[in-house]
Structures are given as structure tokens and as C-alpha cells.
Amino acid sequence: MQAFSRPSMAEAQASAARRRPLPRSIASLLAAGEPLWVASLAALFVIWGYDWIPRLIRLLGRAGQLETVEWAVYMSLLAVFPVVTLFVAVVLPRVFGRYAQTIVKASAVVFALWIGLLFVVEGRLAFALIALIPAVVTAVEEIGISRFGRAISSTTLSEFSLLLFVGIIAWMCAGSLVYWKGGSRWFVGENGHTISAIIGTLLAVSGIPLVSSAAPPAESRRNLKVIERVLSALAIAGLVVFSFRTNPVVEFYHWGFWTGPIEQLRQGGHLLWDTPSQYGFLSILVPHAMPARSWEAFWAFQSIIYAIVAFIMYAVFRRMRPGSGNLLLAVALVFTTLFFRPRSDSLILAAQMTPSGGPVRFIWCFVTLAYLLWAFDRHQGQKARPGRMGFPVMGHVIWLMSLLWSFEAAIYSSAIWFAAFAVYLVQRAASEKASGMSTTSIARRLIVSAAIPFILAAVLYLIVWAVYRITLGAGPDVAGYI
Fold first, then answer.
1. DSSP string, 338-398
2. Distances (CA, A) of 248 to 3, 245, 264, 345
3. Hey, what's the torsion of the CAs at 346, 351, 355, 361, to 10 degrees?
4. Whether the Cβ atoms of residue 353 and residue 250 lie closer than 8 Å to each other
């Protein structure tokens, strides 16, 4: 029995190898390029996703349309990429050792470089950029630091590299929206387009703070000059007024999906019973209750939501940095991205013309993110208090509103809120553990806290069911909601 209880010589050597620290040169190189393998892995998910996912879809007998492939790539980045990253960063060194982890990280970088070079040869420059930029940025950063030494600080070069990387990816994303022409050709095809890209880049550089020089949001707001406060108030007023514009905002086909159910409710219909609604429940009931004709009520309803979202977006951007550069950036971003939508290279439409592509559908995503940012700013630097329940209570209320709004809004808000709620529970459990609370008590509190939102959702459904039962004699059609 002792032979089975003692580890063999090979097992002992393997265990020692897992615990043995890496040589200093390798360790310093890995520390310097740590972001590189993560970025390279993400690039591989995007590139291989667009290559393999269509094949898998066709293998299942489907056509594999572009939109389906894009959503599949997005979902792989959302659900699979974090798991793989955590496995490589946490599980791999504990189970197989640091050397195995180093090999996996290096393989991700090498694969990304190799595929990027292949795409360069094939002329597929967009994919090549995705694959090569992480490696190029890291290499420039490390070589620049070693060559120039004290002349260029590592912090400044790191931040410049990060801005360069994000900026190139941002312009690539913007270019992909110009679906009637290749993005790169569109930006350099006419002088006006090139000038617009340059102005946008200058606004971003002047309006986005460097990490090392960024003041805390509360301190930044206290240091605002009077003239800047006045200009900011005028900017908000202008965005709110523009939210209520009346011409041109109506496109009958797109508005009909909203005004049709509203009109049918006013003629005695009931949602989740005899009135189909493609875009939700509360999103139809609210304009239905407004004192105006259905088209006018929906115009006022959508305008109010645009004003709310415009204020949220502007406040979030202004939070980043004081100064006129950030003010101009915030106004330009909100004005152009919220209120306008391109239909072709020569036709820019009012976003209100297509409500299904605007904040009427996604209002609770904006509200949830704004609440999380407000909570982060409010509690930044404060010690977490395990008994504090204000944060989850308000978050649950916002989430319940998304459930009432529409099934689609509930999915998006759930992805946002439950990720933040999970972080809150982990932080609270760590604080309770540090205060001496037993593991059993912590686990019990976690289970109860995690169950609360689902209990609230069940209670909400019972209330809706009771109302329908009393008024119609039958429960709501759940399939109609989904």
C-alpha cells in the first residue's frame, strides 16, 4: 500500500518541474509580452471563426449566411474565448506546469503571426491586420523601450501603442459599416473622406485620456471650468431638442411594427393574447397609454427615449476627461452615431426612421451600463461592505424592467447585469471570508442572493398572470412574448 501512496520518482520530478520557476530571461520576456498572447488568441477566434464556422454550418445542411456567421463569431468571443483564456492563465500552469503554459501562449502568437503573413500574401489585408497588429504593437513597444531607454518611458509607449491598436481596429470597424464599398478604399478614395478620418482621429486623441494622466472621474468633474459647464449644458440641451425633431423621422413600413399593435390595443385588443407584437410588451403599452393618436404617441415616446440615451451617452463620454477636446468628441460621437444611419454612400437617414434599429429596443442596455458605471464611480476606492444591498436591489429592478420591456431586451440586459452581479457576489464572499465568516454561511448567503432575481421574476410573472386571469379569464401567451 505504501508503494501506491508514495509518488514515483517520475511523478516527483514532474511535480518539481511544475513548481520550478522559469529562467529570469524567459520570465521577463513573458511578462513584457503578456497581453500579446491574449490578443493573438482573440485574433485567432475571429479569423478561424470566419473560416470554420461556415463549414460547420454547411456540414449541418444550412446555408451559412453572413449574418449567422457573424453572430456565431460574436458568441464564440463571448462564451468560449474567456473560458479558454482563463484555462490557459489559471488552470494550465497548475495542472501541467509553467513550461506547458509558455508553449501554449507562444503557439497562439506564432499561429497569429503565421496566419497574418499568409493573409498578406493572399491580399486579405483586413484579416492580416487583425492577426499581425498585436504582435507588431508588442514588438515595437519592447524594442522601443530597449533602444531609447530613458528617452521614452514604458508607460507612454504602452499607452501610445494601445491607442494606435484600438484606433486602427476602430477605423476597420467603421470601414466595415460602409458596406457598399471596401472600407479602406472608401476612406482614401475622396479628399472629404480622408479629412473626416483625420478629424475623427484628432478628436479621439484630444478627447480620450491617457491612462497615466487620467484623473478620477469625480475629481475631473470638480475641476470643470464655468465656461465648460455652460457649454456642456448647451450641448445636452441641443441633443435633447434634436431628439424631438419631426422631419424626416417617419418611415411607414418600419413604424408600422410599433403603431400597429398600439392601434389594435386602442381598439380593444390585448398583448400576449390577440395582438401580436414583434418588439415587446411594455415598449408597446407605454406609448399606448400616452394621450395622443398612435403615430403621435409613438413619436413622443421614441423622442423621450432618444433624449434619455443621448444624455447617458454624452455623460459617459464626458466622464472620461475634462476639456474642450473631450466635449467636442462627446458631442460628435453622440450626434453622429445616435441620430444618423447610412443607407448608401450618398444617403444618410435619420435614425428615428427605423425604430427597430435604435434605442427604443435597446434602452435598458444603456440604462444598465450607465447604472454600473455610476456604481463603480460612487464606490471607487471605498472598502466593500458585505451587508450593502443597494447595488443589487437597484440592478434587479432595472433587470425586471427589461423583462417587461421585451424578451430581446431581457436577453441583452441579463448578459450585462448578471456578469456584474456575479462580480459583486464574488467580491462580497471574499470580504466575508476575510472577516472570518464560515464557508457554510458564505455559501448559504451566495445561494440565497443568486436566487433572489429569479424569485422576483417568478413573482412578476404571477402578477401578470393574475391580471390576465382576472380580465380575460386565461393566462398570458408566453410563446407570444418569446
1. HHEEEEETTEEEEGGG-GGGSHHHHHHHHHHHHHHHHHHHHHTTSPP-TT--HHHHHHHHH
2. 84, 8, 25, 19
3. 120
4. yes
The answer to whether the CB of 144 falls within 8 A of the CB of 152 is yes
Phi, psi of 350 (to 5 degrees): -70, 130
Burial class (CB in 10 A: 0-12, 13-18, 19+), 287: buried
Q: What is the C-alpha to C-alpha distance for residues 10 and 27, in angstroms, rounded to an integer?
A: 25
- Helices 24-32 and 34-59, axial angle in degrees (round to 10): 60
Collect all residues with Cβ–Cβ distance below 8 Å to 133 and sequence separation of at least 6: 39, 43, 165, 168, 169
Query: Mean pLDDT, 10 residues at a time, over the chain (482 residues)?
Result: 45 51 56 71 78 78 69 80 87 85 84 73 62 57 46 54 64 61 66 78 76 53 74 94 92 93 94 92 95 94 97 91 87 92 79 92 94 86 54 95 95 92 91 90 93 96 95 91 90
Using DSSP, state whether 266 is helix, strand or coil: helix
- Whole-prediction pTM value? 0.70
Q: What angle do CA 325, 328, 332 make, to 5 degrees?
A: 140
